[in-house]
Description:
Helix 7 packs parallel to helix 8 (about 210-215). The protein starts with a strand and ends with a helix. It is of the alpha/beta class. It folds into 2 domains: about 5-40 and about 175-250, Rossmann fold (3-Layer(aba) Sandwich), CATH 3.40.50; about 40-165, Rossmann fold (3-Layer(aba) Sandwich), CATH 3.40.50.10090. It has 9 helices and 11 strands. The protein has helices spanning about 20-25, 45-50, 65-75, 95-100, 115-125, 145-150, 185-195, 210-215, 235-250, and strands at about 5-10, 30-35, 35-40, 60, 85-90, 110, 130-135, 155-165, 180, 205, 225.
Amino acid sequence: MAIKTILVSQPKPEGEKSPYFDLAEKYDLKIDFRPFIHVEGVNAQEVRGQRVNFAEHSAVIMTSKNAVDHFFRVAEEMRFQVPDTMKYFCISEAVALYLQKYVAYRKRKIFFGKQTIEELADVMKKHKTEKFLLPCTDILRDKIPEVLESFGYQFTKAVLYRTVASDLSDLEDVYYDMLVFFSPGGIESLFKNFPDFKQNNTLIAAFGPTTANAVIKNSLRLDVHAPQPNLPSMTAAIEHFIKEVNKKEKSKK
């Protein structure tokens, strides 16, 4: 079956350059973007109900840009003035640079790993005596607190935002050859919006092991999976799949 239309369950990339745009041009595809999930902030009252006191912490662990935004939003709502001495430990350099939106970038107080929680936990070793705050979503992966606990860090989890299903009702009568997912929440949103969804000939692509597991757990067929050793990105995996399909179509002729 030739692939002509793809729906990516993420926001449209900003700017004119994106591997998705290159893919669309190269294979004459129609690629649409639509977030299946979105983030909603938890209010200060709910945070207080979790018995979290920002003032008791000397460092913050930032696992995403959402964590950064909601930490400073809740701090403002609580009228908590974040001290200049606060240290920040970020999952990646991109998140560390994003912090500049709220604080002056100084090496003495901003640290970052390469991309994983294990790498960040290793960076945190020299600061083991800090009391860490972990701003997070309500669907935080177990792996993050498990790794922090294995290193013996003293940390408090604070749920500052929730991941919820977006309203996709306008897509009810729209058909795509392929749906691309990046989180289990995206799969949940699909069934919340379309409880009677039947996969039939629709191809499903998933990024990451937890997303792939969610596809299988929901009795769906997993057609494209990334990352893989030779296919590190979602676009690389989709292109490889398209090439294989095209080969089969040619051999039939």
